[in-house]
Task: structure prediction
Amino acid sequence: MGTDEISDMTVERVKYMSLVKVKEKRRVGAKASLFFLVLLSPLSLYANSLMYQSNYERTGVYDGYGPESEPVLAWKFDAGAPVVGAILVYDDAVYFSDFEGGVYALNKSDGTLLWEKDLGGQPSLQVTLNEDVVLVGRRFSRDDDESYLIALDRMTGEERWKFEPDDYSGIDAPTIYEGKVFLTSMLEHIFALDLLTGEELWRREIQGGSRQLLISENVLYFQDDSQSVLAMEPETGELKWSRTLSDGKENSFSTPAIDECFIYATLIEHDAASLIKLNKVSGEVEKSFGMEFPTMSSVSVYEGSVFWGDYASGDGGSGYMNAMDAGTGEFLWRVKTEGPINSSAAIAGDTVYFGSHDHYLYAVDRHGGDVKWRYETEAGIASSPSVVDGRVYFGSIDGHVYVLE
Result:
């Protein structure tokens, strides 16, 4: 799918489906210092979720467990604009961005506001953080060509540095790894920056990118919009190998996933889609599995099974969450929802969590595909859930962040 189609399907659909309100710049609880909370709460007591899809390999697998039976709402927060990215958790705070440029830190216990930053334009769909900073990109649009990556102090939300490249960047979340920041450009480059200063260290030309970067065994991987998969040295950007999967170019937010031996990437060609299994050391294609319907969902992988959501385009706008045997390509189960599925699968224990544009968050048995429960919001869910300390965190196009336990 092209950028315009994504815009039509996500941006306009988001604005149409959401109950968008005039954004209130609230400061409820803002005087409660995040630094004070951290002093009271040793790091070792908490599980964290620092990036989209849980880890560098983007498997979508979380430690521990989420709600197994019918959940209760711990709290929800009204951002006043659609929330489509993953909700991140560090220590006693929760971090996310909304669709209109707000970046937030909330108190983990009750959802009160710790700080808020207004970027004045559309942010990257995902944010990334570590113990010191929250990194978020600002996207260019048809009406505004300003684009940058900004590092915000995790405690206060104050700007630490800003990287403004000479091409359009900041469409998606960067990756923090061993003192560096790796950032993809929408049009031309992968950048490596110094984490402390934002200074550019190196760049490599690509064919544009809207997916997440991956890292496995000190190798940096990326699938660009030419649908080539690249493997690079993180220190220098030197290319280890590149594998072209198609002659066509497609913009997609479907990030690959990596297990011990293989990369699982989607290939989109006009009306067809495939799941490609590549050797992560050599880049050789091991197998190709047909996907019945197109997908914008990222791939998740766990214990020999691969999971993704799709658009059942010929079936009234419904969608499926699919579970496939990664060795044979056999479908293990499929769960149908009454809306397309952009949300990627979050896996915790024996449960798979995902959202659908039918307004529900689903919890499904990982082995058999039985629906354990579903939770309704007021609009579609494109946000990929995060599972931390027995809770599931996600955003909705209705403008709220939900926390279930």
In short: Helices lie at 3-17, 34-40. The longest strand covers residues 262-269.
